[in-house]
Specification:
It is a single chain. The protein is mostly helical. Helices cover 80% and strands 1% of the residues. Strands 1-2 form a two-stranded parallel sheet.
Length: 451
């Protein structure tokens, strides 16, 4: 058997930056939709409905992508586990980028009638498929190449995609909004961030075409026959890991999408804050999340993935009950504090996830297993939460949203504690260990192999 050659420090830095830039672009594309849904889509694509119903339906189209994400994880995971991480990631970037540009070119309901929202939903599904296949592949670029003991630090890079993508999305929308009137922004200005995606696609494609396949995957392909059905292997051999991983990460999605989508709508419609102010705070929200993600990822190499994720969930349980009382004060500073602090627990828990989920699965179906677990968490936490938040706010007030979020965080905490600590696990190459570990319970530290 051949022995996988670890990448040099220069190659490792290139892989880290490629994963960071790729996920940032993907999440920028994914998130500008959420910002537009909060600000203008209710009027652009659902003008016949009342404000509350249009906002609800606008967020529903946002949630459609989360239903597509697990399908994307299965589809792209299949090819990622069989033909390689690099080739698959080129495909996800192209699908996401072209779908995003198409949204920017889409005629409104006033121009083509009911066909407009139908096409919007189709393009949103395409975005969901792309981002569903993106995360696992980008994470494996770093996780499967990282030196032992530094997997959390290197797997951090793709984990910064959601925070930096939101900063970029907020900055683009804010710049566009400042250059024109509210009327012009609602009429056509919102399209600019979508169309600018074509530039980011070119940058991302250049980065991804100039990276190499991961050493762990190359070794697995050189020495073993690839999985015939990675999805079937993952769900039959490690269903517990898939479900516990999804449950553990659900809090991150719930709080994140409250912060980056619902609070944008809440700040403008419920608190009467200006769009420019809310978009500017979005930059601060993304920066707060980035810092917390860095702290969570780097500390996970020292104290463990499970401890950092548990800490993030505990923080979120407490802050969920404080967030809307703080926001309801109604001042600009209250909004800044409430919105930014909502992301601290997310970052502490989300930082270790880039290392933790890949460490749970064998190489032959790692892309599929990690991606499926991650994107099921997106359905549980991200698809339902913004939609439910609108209804809870209208019926019971903001505190009800906080109680719901605290419940999600409590479930994630229990799933985290029920899972295994994985920071000592190696991506081993032993065939015998592979079969044993895949069938063994995961409540104790053990070697997770690559076969």
């Amino acid at each position: 058997m051949s022995t996988p050659q670890p990448p040099s420090k220069t190659q490792m830095r290139r892989l880290a930056w490629a994963s960071l830039i790729g996920t940032t672009i993907e999440f920028y594309d994914f998130l500008i939709y959420g910002t537009a849904a909060a600000l203008v889509f209710n009027k652009t694509f659902f003008p016949a409905l009342g404000t509350a119903s249009a906002t609800l339906l606008s967020f529903a189209t946002l949630g459609v992508a989360f239903v597509a994400r697990p399908l994307g994880a299965i589809l792209f995971g299949h090819y990622g586990d069989r033909i390689g991480r690099k080739k698959t990631l080129v495909s996800t970037l192209l699908l996401m980028g072209l779908s995003t540009v198409a949204v920017g070119l889409l005629p409104t309901t006033g121009q083509i009638g009911i066909l407009a929202p139908i096409l919007l939903v189709i393009l949103r599904v395409c975005q969901g498929l792309a981002v569903g296949g993106e995360w696992a592949g980008a994470t494996l670029l770093t996780a499967e190449n990282a030196p032992e003991g530094k997997r959390g630090a290197y797997a951090l890079f793709p984990q910064l995609g959601p925070s930096l993508g939101f900063v970029l999305a907020s900055t683009t929308f804010l710049s566009t909004r400042l250059m024109m009137s509210s009327e012009s922004f609602a009429a056509w200005g919102w399209r600019i961030p979508f169309l600018l995606s074509i530039v980011l696609i070119a940058v991302g494609m250049y980065m991804r075409m100039n990276i190499s396949e991961t050493a762990t995957f190359r070794h697995n392909i050189d020495n073993h026959k690839p999985s015939g059905n990675p999805f079937l292997e993952a769900v039959t051999r490690q269903p517990r890991e898939i479900l516990l991983g999804a449950g553990a990460v659900s809090m991150c999605f719930a709080f994140y999408y409250i912060g980056v989508t619902y609070l944008t709508s809440y700040g403008t419609k419920n608190l009467g804050l200006s769009q420019t102010f809310v978009l500017a705070v979005g930059i601060a929200i993304g920066a707060t999340l980035a810092v917390a993600t860095i702290v969570g990822a780097r500390l996970s190499d020292r104290v463990g993935r499970r401890r950092m994720m548990a800490l993030g969930n505990l923080y979120s349980i407490v802050f969920a009950l404080l967030m809307f009382p703080i926001l309801s004060i109604g001042t600009t500073w209250a909004y800044i504090v409430g919105a930014c602090l909502s992301q601290v627990g997310v970052g502490l828990a989300y930082g270790p996830v880039g290392a933790m989920l890949p460490e749970l699965f064998a190489t032959r179906y790692r892309y599929t297993g990690a991606g499926l677990s991650y994107n099921l968490a997106g359905v549980l936490g991200g698809a339902v939460t913004p939609l439910l938040a609108v209804q809870l706010q209208d019926s019971f007030g903001g505190l009800a949203i906080g109680v719901y979020l605290a419940g999600v965080a409590a479930v994630s905490l229990l799933c985290t504690l029920a899972g295994a600590e994985t920071k000592q696990r190696r991506f081993d190459t032993s065939t015998e260990q592979a079969t044993t570990a895949a069938a063994a319970p995961s409540t104790t530290d053990s070697t997770i192999p690559t076969h």
